[in-house]
Design a protein that fits this description.
Oligomer: single chain
Largest sheet: 7 strands, mixed
Shape: flat
Number of helices: 19
Distance between the termini: 116 Å
Length: 784
């Protein structure tokens, strides 16, 4: 009997003390974990900061020595340079003595240790980069080290600070042992105190309560009559009251339990079968989650109740949930409605709309929430916004295109004189005459102005696009061999351009000149982004998109299935700020100095060229890490055409009759002078009406040179249509400021197959006229 009582006592003690000990042990382990980590982190950070400080001080010492030499302008004096280098080495090694356990050495040309704060040190350094390093691990001899280095480019030094691993880990090991001893001592002290208090305050009174309870179980309703004012005394009084009313309360308790069961059944019917996510959160954890919530998150009920609520919330929305839902105070009883993202067990990100209201649960404030999944609604809204943005972008370009198109004709007419007349003058001025240089400069200025107009037209997708089979590798090679690229390299000598071209690259169909300008714009932007020097990469590859297996990547449009030629231009420069990425393709939007670094049209021209070639463009950028542009062009299996040799001017001569129709006097005279010099019989008309009258007077012509926009009066399309009614089959070429209009295409379908863009040179006009006069039969429409 005595043995049974002792066993019962031990069980009570163990059942009460053991959990306390285990909880204390858990708290101690957690405390040790959370204390040890900051202490170790503090020691590590301090040591690493000293490493970085040592290398930074050493670099600063080298810089000061070099600046002193440069200020005296003695950088070309070998003796002074060697003396300065020796002084810098001495000052660097002196720094090591100021920091405990920190040593310094200098590596020259990434190969040779030329100085070290430890005598006799031998080290074969690894390949050290030129950029600023992080804390690295290595070994000197058989001893591991932690090191940091900085690069001094003027003398090609790497200044390396290092500490031996044993010196690095010594303070950390001491800190760990200290934390362990202190934590264990506190645990033992707390456990002993709890045990003594438990034995006096709980164990002894509990024996009396157990004995009385055993008596009640055997039908002896003996009262405890324990005279204490603490919780155990209250328990004894409650026990005595229970004994007095146990029999009469039995039926009443049974009735209460029946009502509770009925209430619980109604509650479960309402919550467990609800289509909404119903949950209750207290102290940052779930205290209840219905079946819909469990199914929505993908976790089991046990997993949910063990998790922090914030673990389910998307990282970008955790502050919102923490502040407005979990951060409730007891006197804030207002309901709230919020939308935020959550993460399912499968890692999927979805949207939730939550209606939350504060409540009391077990005497403490809790949050009761009803939520529905609104992911499908969010996706639909995002798609609608994207469509609206694309529509707005298209409308903006359409409006800008109307403005640009309305002035392009007049600008190109004005520029025609600057481009065309110098050709006529050069034919009359002998080689060696100094006047040729002035005239060529005038013509070059006109051509540059015409190129800007063409950029504007390309930007609004109204420029001329010559569709021919080209190879992107060949275009890139032409770009790298151009004077513009040589000029770019001279402006950015610290930027290295690396080329990686797919030797089996497929061809594409497009405009060589527009693609060349696109490649040049992308390379130029990449080089300008490398403010402190860096690497610009130009790569090409073939890529097949399988709609069944590949979806859109972040920053990429969904590509239709098919074969593509990919152009990738990347840099490791400053990157593009997130708020600027959505605007980089807007016309005239630039972060550069206008007039010095461009017109603000470069990326707009790139975007328009890609659209004209039915391609796709994507941008990936991160500030401080660089930018990557990736262009996809539909591939072509056709072969590229072999360029014909340039013909001599004599090949363009003729004796046919040509009628030039243009409402601008200077333009008519320029065309007449060029064609007359080539031997043609030339007539001119200042409007479409005059051209019609010319043929009505029984005039004849072998070819029309036809302007499209003439004001006032009928335009080129209507003029050609009426003349064809009188002279069926009459050949014509279009001379216009821009050709990407429906009326130009309609004129070409009537028979004016060739279109030349103003301003034109003698060769361009002569070649187009001769080609059209020599043409026989039906040929596809062309643009020159």
């Amino acid at each position: 009997m005595l043995k049974g009582k002792l066993a019962a006592k031990n069980r009570i003690v163990l059942s009460m003390i053991l959990p306390v000990f285990l909880v204390g042990l858990a708290i101690t382990v957690v405390s040790v974990y959370f204390w040890t980590k900051p202490v170790i982190s503090f020691i590590e950070n301090r040591t690493e900061a000293e490493l970085e400080l040592a290398s930074d001080l050493a670099l600063q010492a080298c810089s000061e020595r070099l600046n002193y030499l440069l200020n005296l302008r003695l950088e070309n004096n070998p003796e002074m340079v060697e003396s300065t280098r020796a002084g810098a080495i001495e000052e660097v090694l002196r720094i090591s003595g100021k920091l405990d356990h920190i040593h310094l050495l200098i590596v020259e040309n990434n190969k040779t240790v030329i100085a070290a704060s430890l005598p006799g040190l031998k080290w074969s350094p690894p390949t050290l980069a030129r950029h600023k390093s992080t804390i690295l691990s290595d070994a000197i001899g058989s001893q591991p080290i932690r090191m940091h280095y900085r690069y001094f480019p003027f003398w090609r030094w790497h200044v390396v600070s290092f500490i031996y691993e044993k010196d690095y880990m010594g303070p950390i090991s001491l800190a760990k042992r200290t934390v362990y001893v202190v934590s264990l001592s506190v645990l033992l002290l707390v456990t002993a105190t709890v045990f003594l208090l438990f034995d006096r305050m709980v164990s002894r009174p509990m024996k009396k309560i157990i004995k009385a309870a055993e008596g009640v179980a055997q039908g002896r309703y003996t009262k405890l009559r324990l005279r204490r004012q603490d919780e155990m005394g209250q328990v004894a009084q409650a026990f005595d009251s229970m004994v007095e009313s146990l029999e009469e309360d039995k039926n009443w308790i049974h009735a209460i339990m029946s009502k509770l069961k009925e209430s619980e059944e109604r509650y479960r019917l309402l919550t467990e079968n609800s289509l909404a996510n119903i949950m209750m959160v207290q102290d940052g954890r779930f205290t209840y989650a219905n079946r819909t919530t469990i199914a929505t998150t993908g976790y089991s009920a046990d997993e949910l109740y063990k998790m922090e609520v914030l673990d389910l919330v998307h990282p970008d929305d955790r502050n919102l949930v923490k502040e407005v839902i979990l951060g409730r105070v007891e006197d804030d009883w207002t309901a709230c409605r919020y939308e935020f993202r959550y993460l399912t067990k499968q890692g999927e990100t979805r949207w939730l709309e939550l209606l939350a209201v504060p409540t009391l649960y077990k005497g403490k404030t809790a949050t009761l929430g009803h939520a529905i999944d609104i992911t499908d609604r969010k996706v639909a809204m995002r798609e609608q916004r994207e469509l609206e943005e694309k529509l707005h972008h298209a409308q903006k370009f359409e409006a800008l295109g109307t403005i640009v198109g309305s002035v392009a004709h007049d600008l190109n007419n004005i520029l025609s004189g600057l481009v065309g007349y110098p050709d006529l003058l050069l034919l009359q001025i002998p080689e060696g005459n100094p006047m040729r240089r002035y005239i060529l400069n005038i013509q070059l200025s006109g051509q540059k102005a015409a190129a800007i107009v063409q950029d504007l037209l390309t930007m609004v997708r109204r420029g001329v696009v010559v569709q021919e089979v080209v190879n992107l590798n060949s275009i890139i090679s032409d770009c790298l061999g151009s004077p513009e690229f040589e000029k770019l390299k001279s402006f950015h000598p610290d930027v290295e351009v690396k080329i990686s071209l797919d030797s089996g690259l497929l061809n594409i169909s497009g405009s060589r000149i527009h693609l060349l300008k696109t490649v040049m714009n992308l390379i130029s932007n990449a080089a300008q982004a490398c403010l402190q020097g860096g690497i610009t990469r130009v790569e090409t590859e073939n890529r097949r998109i399988d709609a069944a297996s590949e979806g859109p990547k972040p920053g990429h449009e969904a590509l239709p299935q098919g074969e593509y030629v990919v152009l990738r231009v990347s840099d490791d420069g400053v990157g593009i700020a997130p708020e600027d990425q959505a605007r980089i393709f807007e016309p005239f939007y630039t972060k550069k100095v206008m007039g010095r670094s461009g017109t603000g049209l470069g990326m707009a021209v790139v975007w328009s060229t890609v659209q004209d070639h039915r391609g796709y463009i994507s941008v990936q950028s991160e500030e401080g890490k660089g930018t990557t542009f990736e262009l996809h062009f539909p591939a072509s299996r056709e072969n590229t055409l072999i360029k014909q040799n340039r013909l001599s001017m004599g090949s363009y001569r003729g004796s046919e009759t040509i009628l030039v129709v243009d409402d601008v006097k200077e333009q008519r005279e320029l065309a007449r002078d060029i064609l007359s010099r080539l031997g043609y019989a030339v007539a001119v008309a200042a409007s479409g009406e005059e051209a019609i009258e010319y043929f009505q007077r029984n005039g004849s012509a072998d070819l029309l040179v036809l302007d499209m926009i003439m004001d006032p009066g009928i335009d080129g399309l209507e003029t050609y249509r009426r003349i064809l009614a009188m002279k069926p089959g009459l050949k014509a070429i279009i001379a216009s400021g821009f050709s990407e209009t429906e009326r130009v295409r309609e004129t070409q379908r009537l028979g004016a197959r060739t279109c030349i863009v103003k301003p034109f040179t003698i060769e361009k006009l002569a070649a187009a006229v001769r080609e059209e006069l020599d043409r026989s039969g039906e040929h596809p429409t062309g643009t020159a």
